[in-house]
């Protein structure tokens, strides 16, 4: 936190320009506070960083099962008190919070001397058998420190699949991403021998502002800026896309171009977006730095065209780029200078006077038929794999045809920049059977075969012309149209060196990564937004990637991978109580709307439910025995493994199917988030929210289904509701009341035995991101609503761009953050100024939050809301998408001391709060994968980029970060004292 005096000086320098002798410090501080509001509001406060006892803890017995604990501290820091056994295991969590005017129970307000009491019971309400063997532990100043990375952390474990490879004199550049619409692109640099050098996306943290031109930022405190991508909304509230134009699923694979120290890449083309977005070319520099022009991009092809599998090549001097793409029967040329779009150089009729012929295929030298790859030699000649014409065409820089090399189904082509040797992948023949083949030809002047190698099937390739012997880099490459997938060669990166008329593999990235990680390797990082992290506090374990999958389980203390758990249905969320049970929120789209409970201490090899036998193929796959809820019912569905005693819930799938939150307290009481889309006699309203994500993609040109397709989906939606009602099922809908949303997010509470505590305890509408419950029945959740300060949104006016005074990317207008709430345990409602059923009498206070549109714009004039039942609100939670497709989400963590750990994407940190909403600390600052790899165990300088899913135990905190690492922190304290019980 910046000291007040420094904040004042910064404010004066930025807004006044000079110090005015008569200006009071109080006035200036108030103005700075208006410009940079705190994420919390009074009476909430934040800790003083003074961590010292003036009186150490002392305990005395004051009555039967009543023990008085006293201590004094020097400042209003955060204090954590617990009863621990001789193994330092917490038997009773007495409390944790920031002392001062808003200190939470059991602490006294406005007092540095504290007296609290213990009733001799443990966390579950049972009396401790031998209380005199326990100790009281009082800790000051929570101090999380880095502990370890879990899984296959070695940077040779390339996330997702390789979708781009290019090698230059300075090294090799590997682009990779997962296969989904929400997966982002990673860019890592290696030397010529395959040694890791650095991550370039997100940008290195040591780059100065002048080398980050075109990148966005959020100024979250005076003079403090957090780096974001060129589209701030993406890394603030979206999927986390950083590399402009290359993310999502509009690029299947691509060979980027390296020219004049720049890495050039294309988006998927205007054809992918159905003409609603242009074909664009972007670039960044080879050290990860950026400029405005490269981040903004240049229009590439003016007509509607696809280039999801583009192959780029640069002229020897880097002044011209060439591009071909399967399905486009032309080669484009593009000047790297100026602002002119690309022009057709070859194909489509040939000749500069015939460019208007466009995309016509043909077999003469003025036509091409499905060119799939190209490259340039040192003289500027252009080599084009004319696939359907079974030939390699060679052209002069002006497009004149020079030579044809007949070849069966040519594929990737590379030309050595020094020797002129040609390396061509194509179809060969062995004993009458077709085989994949790589052939080396001597040169353009003498195109004779020197050797060939069969059965090499890389997805992506690059030629290294700067090593003593030529080397080829192979990567897994793309799969089906619009979705990168694992190529037949896998996702690995390998380096092959020419050796005596053949190729010899000299580097294997997977082997390097596995050697570094050993038996704890878990395969590739997803690059996605669904890597849920769920900790088991009783066993100190973490479950990773349990969302719709079989989570891997790690021991938090040792970091060892233990087992992989087979969950009987696709799950949305997992949670644990203090009895050690795992509670599972079932995905209603793939399973049965409900919650099940299992016991990790009762495990067995995973069974094939349909064959009735152990799944021998997966020898490390384990499943847990069900522990039915007392009031549970049978949950069954054809072709779906069922439950003996699960809790039926009201989840309605919608387009995305999954629900958005689930929490269990120590006692086993539950809060379940349920999305409600059914609105009687107003079906279109609910359907509109249910299909909001698909509609948003369609509006942007991605995956549109057309009006007829949408009407068909709507009809199916109505039929599904009618069928449920015909079968006697009571389909829940939100009762129509003034001000209350008619559809969207609700949260329901349940007793430990499975009985409903309150139906729709929270009626919020819109989207929630994580729901939690404490032992007092109070609820915690993040809502996709922005907190208001005097009628303005949090971070209003705090977004900017290095080198530009306006957004570089479309629809990047306002910073959007969500709000984290603590509320009462029942009857919590969000009242909307613009509700379908108008309010009779709006609350006599300013509105609390406002909804956001698909692009983060605050929807003033109807979207303002009052939240009834809120204890406090904390601004700046994220990443959570405002509206539209809400797949990308987050989960906060509520520990057993009732402390909240909230992702804060706007400043690359976690906000840690006590149960009264006081800020304990902001944890972490900007860093990319290199910063994470450089962290030493025990450091409190935690570097992170975009953590989404946070979970923990009494001793550890675990979170994913940008789909490329799993981080574990140790929860230490600045000072700690213990006392025996007398």
Largest sheet at a glance? 10 strands, mixed
Regarding CATH, which class of the domain at 533-678 and 732-971? Mainly Beta
- The appropriate CATH architecture of the domain at 533-678 and 732-971 is 6 Propeller
Low-confidence stretches: 1-31, 350-356, 479-483, 704-708
> What does the average pLDDT come to?
90
> What is the beta-strand fraction?
35-45%
What is the CA-atom radius of gyration, in angstroms?
Answer: 30 Å
Shape: globular
CATH topology (level 3) name of the domain at 533-678 and 732-971: Neuraminidase
Give the proportion of residues in helices: under 10%
CATH superfamily of the domain at 533-678 and 732-971: TolB, C-terminal domain
The tally of beta strands, per DSSP, is 67
For this structure, the quaternary state is single chain
* Tally of alpha and pi helices: 9
Class derived from helix and strand content: mainly beta
Distance between the ends: 41 Å
